[in-house]
């Protein structure tokens, strides 16, 4: 028994069933009253309704193929009341679709459609309650007129229209001359002007049928006595056509045929360029083409067997799937660009057993209903990080090395790798039916279970895949998306979707906040970002870096600059700085003369200097040198310090009377005993460079 209930949105859902895209077409007359005699043509247009739809469950999936008992009823009201007519039919449903002519078993009485009154169609499936709401049937004017014009009035006959209470409001006699309330008569055709569509259309009734023209006199619709129905747009272009045998055609505003159906349930569709894109042969075959007219998909339903074929743009079969609904066996195949088999799967849904084979037919994996599996290659549940571990599951291979990791293989989640840091990686197949090649998805979760990274590969095999890398912060918000395409292009966006970097296959790139410059034909490159400058040598090794993080530059080997280099901040040089073609200088800012350059003293040897001021005390003083300074220089008998003194007051003259390794003594000439002041300067060899003098330079 089906559990029926109501659903929403463009379809009437009844429990597990839904009737989607219902098409109701009046094939002939419904409802007329004859005066002065019976219908002169008892073999008139049949009273039939063409009814088509799709049965789907409450998830929107087509119901299983088979036959269903369905009862169709016509009511006077949208709810309640007794059926004016009903008919129970055994309906064949294939892929959810069905088509039926109502009235073939129980004829539809014409009098239930008198006076153009609204009628409602109810549908019941199997033993479930009738679907709600009922389907409102369109105006029966076409059918009403069709039977009238199919059988012209004979002398003594007439046509009447009654109100809801059965009172005659209008009468038409065969030999009359007028049309109005009462019992007046008229002779000839009828022109009726009224709000058929918008704003006012004119309906002309003849013995051929009914013709509707808009306010501009353009023929917009006709309903002929033989059951033919046509519609035109405001420009006079035909947009719709239907015949009593069930054939229907639709055109777009450019006159291109877009859809055609016949009474057997077959259907074809074209795109705006007139290219055939879809064909359905009721009830067994479906075909789809791409915009170039190349067949890309086929589906064949033969009894309990359903087969689907996916082709690439070269019409090579790339993916095949078949299922037998009776024995519950499904089968899948993947093929390469040459059409050669590379992988197959067979699944028994009753036992839950899956068998996976490679292109040669060799079994490479099995899986049971309990979730256990076996497969060729290495199947390891835990690795202690010694060496490399390779695990293959469902055609996805993962390799891990180093660290303590736990690896799980799940029949539902694919491959899961959990590291000792608490992070885990889940990798599983990601079918891509549009591109025919199965891809994969990798998800990285931190120790709190928050997804921090996602990698998707879609769009085909090696060389054709599109790789998408998504990075998340600790709150689970997207912070960066990197998408790489087969043509070599890479696009990086931030969490808000703003493009921050692009790269092309020729190595050029542009980005916000970071720039990379690479020498033509070489791996030498410079990366300039908002917080760092990095240099790489031809081997791709990082040789120099200046960044706000480390606050300095470091070099391995030799750094070369072909042009000026500007550094905003402190420059620290290890192992020596050589200036070729200039001098060491500093730029200072003056109050009245702007920025000015000052220069360093140059020397043939490597000296450190210390300076100061002092006063004599009774004609003599000993100056002790700074102990920190002393640890940066070498002072001994062979390399004594050099001392210069300059008096700053009148005296007999000054001289250095003694130098040790830590101090020097200054005396006044002629045994003077003044307290004169003086300035002094000491120069000593830098430790490690005592013997360096005018070294050879490259």
What does this structure look like?
The protein is mostly beta strands and 698 residues long. Among the domains are: 11-140, Immunoglobulin-like (Sandwich), CATH 2.60.40; 304-367; 377-505, no CATH class; 515-577, no CATH class; 607-686, Immunoglobulin-like (Sandwich), CATH 2.60.40. 2% of the residues lie in helices and 47% in strands. The strands form 10 sheets. The chain has a 19-stranded antiparallel beta sheet, with helices on one face. Strands 31-34-35-36-37-38-39-40-41-42-43 form an 11-stranded antiparallel beta sheet, with no helix packed on it. The longest helix has 10 residues, at 141-150. The radius of gyration is 47 Å and the shape is elongated. The chain starts with 10 loop residues before the first strand and ends in a 12-residue tail after the last strand. The model is unreliable at 1-46, 139-157, 174-189, 193-199, 377-390 and 392-397 (pLDDT under 50).
| Oligomeric state, counting identical vs distinct chains | single chain
The proportion of residues forming helix, as a percent range, comes to under 10%
Average pLDDT, rounded to a whole number, is: 74
Shape by Cα distribution: elongated
Give the number of helices: 2
Q: Roughly how many Å apart are the termini?
A: 95 Å
The CATH topology label of the domain at 11-140 is Immunoglobulin-like
